[in-house]
Structure formats: C-alpha cells, structure tokens
C-alpha cells in the first residue's frame, strides 16, 4: 500500500528534519514561498532523484543529508534541464542520420521492401521470455506503419503499394529501427552502416544505438540524466577515453562523450561539441554527477 500523501508544508518539514540546508527558511519568507513553488511545480518525487545524491544511503533508508542544500540541488536540476536540451539536439541528428543510412543500405543491397520479409532477419529467440524477436519486430513494424498519420505513408497504402524502406523508417519508432538493425541477417549491410559512422564493429554499433534509444526516451520524457546509472551502458570508442576508464563505464558521461563525437562526425565540424563543451565547462562543479553517479 502506498505511503500517505504529504502536502507541500509537510514535505518541507520532512526535508528540514532530515537536515536539508535551506529547508528551514522562515515560513512566509520569500525563500520559503520559492521553495513551496519549486516543490509544487516539479514534485517531491521527481526532485528526490537530485537530492538523493547528497543523502547518506537512501537506497537503505538512510535519508538524512550529509551535505548539499536547496541551492545546490536547484543548480543540479537546472543543469540537467540544459544538458537534456543539448543531448536531445544531438540525438536528433544521430537518429535522423541512422535512419537514413540504414534505409539506404537496406534498399540498395537488399531491396526497397526487403525490410518486410522475415528472411531478412535473424530468427533469434529471447533467452528469458522465449519470444521470437523476428516475429515481434515484424509486428512492431506493421503496428508503427498502421498507426502513422503521415501522408507519405497513406499515399503508398491508398495506392495499394508496399511502403519502401526509405519512407517506412520515417514512420517507425527509433526503437523499432534499432531492432531492425540488430536483427539484420546480412552482416555486410550492418557493417556498412557501422563503418559509415566510423565504428568498426557492427555489434559495437548495435550496442551504441541500443543505449542511445534509452537516452532518447529519457530525454523525451524529461527524465533525469545527471546522477543516473544507465540501464543500458553506452560503449565508448577507445580513442575517446582520454581520462580514467571508469568514468565511461555505466555512466551518463559515456552518453555525453559518444553523442558529442558522433554529431561532430556527422556534421564534419566541431560546432556541436564546442557548444556542449562550453556548457559543461560552465558547470564543471556538477560533472561528478555524470562521471561518478551514485547507485542510490
């Protein structure tokens, strides 16, 4: 059964009891009203993902604060909002380019409608569930196309034509497109896609895209990136690991490094990374939450 809901004043009192600096602002003061507004607009639960960084061991129920303040948590929250904006911009570039290149190589090597043929994909079985991934993928493709309101999809459907892959990928979810790539039986096609991104291994490319799909979904739903341990870690290319390797493994920093690198390679210049680096440099005191996220 869920815990009883607490009103805003009770939430502030709880933070005060736990030693959160700034939660003890005098009732009725500008600081107190501002804190009330912040909690009302963003929710205690959402914000707890940021102040947990400053608590003893919330995973074990030790929720008292060992450091941190309202001002510091607000700074981290605002930083994360800005970071999501930069990452969303970069992910849009990567996603559009990946869709385009995958469609190009599938169309030219296998045929415009080969993506609808079961023989195009590996007949792989999910180890845990026993589901046939190829069948699930074809169902997902059909469902995404059926749901699409895009006129270019309706044009082909109304004409009784198969939707060619270069049109289909524009209507499929990024998750579905990533599964298409991962299950392609023709490894030569997968390799051509990966090498177009200067990634030598198609399996490595598969892992990168799979992780970036989760990051895209996190950003799209305004989820927390800062102090988050990715469910699916993003592999980082060896030449990009210029600091201690630990900061790239199962960390948001791995996402940042790979998005930054891939966008620059796609654009052929450093405009994106220059802007992102300037933002990161301006918030250098918060980078530990990207490089050393705490598992609570």
TrEMBL record:
<protein>
    <recommendedName>
        <fullName>DNA-binding protein</fullName>
    </recommendedName>
</protein>
<dbReference type="InterPro" id="IPR011664">
    <property type="entry name" value="Abi_system_AbiD/AbiF-like"/>
</dbReference>
<dbReference type="Pfam" id="PF07751">
    <property type="entry name" value="Abi_2"/>
</dbReference>
